[in-house]
Amino acid sequence: MPPVTRANDQAPMNTEQKAKITLYWLNKSRSQRILWLLEELKVDYELKTYHRGSDMLAPKELKEIHPLGKSPVVSVEAEGMSKPLMLAESGLIVEYLVEHFGPWLAPKRYMEGKEAQIGGENEEWLRYRYYMHYAEGSLMVLMVVGLIVNNIKTSPVPFFIRPITNRIAGSIESMFLAPNFKTHFDFLESQIATSPNSGDYLCGRELTGADILMSFPLVAARGRAGLTKEAYPKLWSYVDKLEAQDGYKKAIQKIIDVEGTFESTL
Q1: Nearest to 188 by CA among 108, 265, 134, 109
Q2: pLDDT tens readout for residues 146-158
């Protein structure tokens, strides 16, 4: 098999090099989108599952895999390596796996005749790079704050303290979360509406690694962050399209086969 190239402006991928990939998966976590990516890449991989404790935190065993004890973590072993390569952080994992095993999941970088020139990048690639950072650096930050606020509202406290905790949570929701979610969802709705080449995805006509990264916060947002079909029809349809992908559904079925059940988020 000849080397697979991402485009004329990218280095060839060595498709003959065999690799052993292991995903350290945690229930109700961002690791599910890495499982989707592996299914999308159609590579062989090993799945090792971990479960949150009653405190909803990751188990201490994950610290044996990576010092931070978080998930996802992926290990990659290949011929010529002295030790496994341990990858943490969703964005890095997606970038690395796409570069080596799925170049079709990244848009071509440069416009024809503008290779390596400043400003010569395609809009599709610029969006791709942007959303690789936006997913965790902007949108997930709000989702985590929203989760903390929800925990404040639902945590068991004495009845005479409940009005205080509800008032604090309500103020954070109304003054910070609601306006910020609206800003982001308005932005994403417009991004779908102006997708390059009239595409259905954030970066154009084809699914990319960035769409896979964006799936977790957006699926969660439909349940608790004000993302509704009525207010954001294009964004809602986009999430429907992500959930309809074969790789997405295979990843869910994989967990059901292994665990017996699947829940996407906390």
Answers
A1: 134
A2: 999 988 888 888 8
d(Cα 173, Cα 156) in Å, to the nearest integer?
A: 19
d(CA 55, CA 53): 5
Q: Over the stretch 215-264, which tens digit does the pLDDT of each residue have?
A: 999 999 997 888 999 999 999 999 999 999 999 999 999 999 999 999 88
Which of 95, 93, 120, 98 minimizes the C-alpha distance to 109? 120
Q: What's the rounded Cα separation, in Å, for the pair 146 and 221? A: 10
Pairing of strands 19-26, 45-50: parallel
Strand partners, 25: 49
**Average pLDDT, integer, range 104-127:** 95
Which secondary structure element, helix H or strand E, spans residue 20, and what is its range? strand 19-26
- Burial of 256: CB neighbours in 10 Å, binned 0-12, 13-18, 19+: exposed
* Total-model pTM: 0.90
Single-letter residue type at 81: M
Angle at 179 between CA 173 and CA 180, to 5 degrees: 95
**Token pair in block for residue 72:** 């996802």
C-alpha 112/C-alpha 190 separation (Å) is: 27
Reply yes or no on whether the pLDDT at 17 is more than 70: no
If residue 165 lies in a helix (H) or strand (E), which one and from where to where?
A: helix 162-172
